[in-house]
């Protein structure tokens, strides 16, 4: 597999640190609100990376944190009149609900900042002991200029950064480029812990470095997140981690592109700010996931009603194929596959090769989805009424092999047909037997309005919910 490494700005062959194993750290949400469509993209993209790595035979350890100590959380707690931990607990629960709707699998570890305070303090102390950090009035800062490679991820020139940097009123750092590792408590209602520098809390950047070190080690295979995190967050992670540990922090850096809303930047002031919870009122989580995977993860992607409708139609095409194949696994002909079917099944290897080639090319899910559609077309043509159950099952297994990697077609539709619908279906069958085709057509149209399509097959009527 080749991965575009942000650190080197080129595609590189993926070679894991330990053969057959992959360690992945993805920056997770700051839990003070429902997450929005822009947050959803890295969650879905790197969940798909994980699934593909597992499909490829790797043993994956996947870590995605919760930032539950942050200014935004403190401010939300003040607004709602509750504690910061209560805010975090509430929105961690809401994260899991929306992530499940998107078919995002839980990480192997979901570390929380609040549960790693000692590790963070030890990390900061090591940087102080090595001369890379200093204390000033209870704050602790990282000395950015002491890391000669600063800027290597974002390709920022330290002299250019200096020209735009300022020391804000009240800050006591020695250099405008230095960043906080530990923040002294400023007010009594701030969440804080005892430390060698007094009561305080971690800075944002140090949190991920400490949690990654604890759960994955000093050097990891892949660190991933949104493009907006390249600088300063990931740049600062590299600086403090490599100074603390004395080894490279991550071998591969992956960043997904931005999402625009109707070709404009998402903004609350413009009224085009959409949480996943908002969008779920109009579209299923699987439609949203299909949409997020329909473009290459590094490219910008535009969110609009028209594109969501395209995603809905594309997913429906896959789902209809799955439903038809599932039906024929029980309603198809008994007995072994015919020789012709065996040959058709071998032909599916072409689609599998195209799928793998796309995913191996820097997780090109757009082309992988195209390979799935080619399979769908072939299966719809090959698996018709009269096909063997065995062939239908083998076709279904191939479709779900690809869909499982993409995290699609995972939601089982409710197959129960209510009594009113079943009565109409039975009445239509009686009308057909009596050659009362006008009434049969009338019932078919009535069912269509209710989102039910009937397909007449030699094995009986197939009832399809739209």
Automatic annotation (TrEMBL):
UniProt motif 'HIGH' region: location: 29-39
Binding-site list for ATP: 268
Ranges of residues in domain Cysteinyl-tRNA synthetase class Ia DALR: 354-417
EC nos: 6.1.1.16
One example of a Gene Ontology biological process annotation: cysteinyl-tRNA aminoacylation
CC per GO annotation: cytosol
Compartment annotation: Cytoplasm
SUPFAM superfamilies xrefs: Anticodon-binding domain of a subclass of class I aminoacyl-tRNA synthetases, Nucleotidylyl transferase
EC category name: ligase
Catalytic activity as recorded in UniProt: tRNA(Cys) + L-cysteine + ATP = L-cysteinyl-tRNA(Cys) + AMP + diphosphate
One example GO MF annotation: zinc ion binding
Keywords on record: Aminoacyl-tRNA synthetase, ATP-binding, Cytoplasm, Ligase, Metal-binding, Nucleotide-binding, Protein biosynthesis, Zinc
Intervals of motif 'KMSKS' region: 265-269
Similarity field: Belongs to the class-I aminoacyl-tRNA synthetase family.
Oligomeric form and interacting partners: Monomer.
Name of the protein this chain belongs to: Cysteine--tRNA ligase
Species this protein is from: Anaerotruncus colihominis
Taxonomic classification: Bacteria, Bacillati, Bacillota, Clostridia, Eubacteriales
Gene: cysS
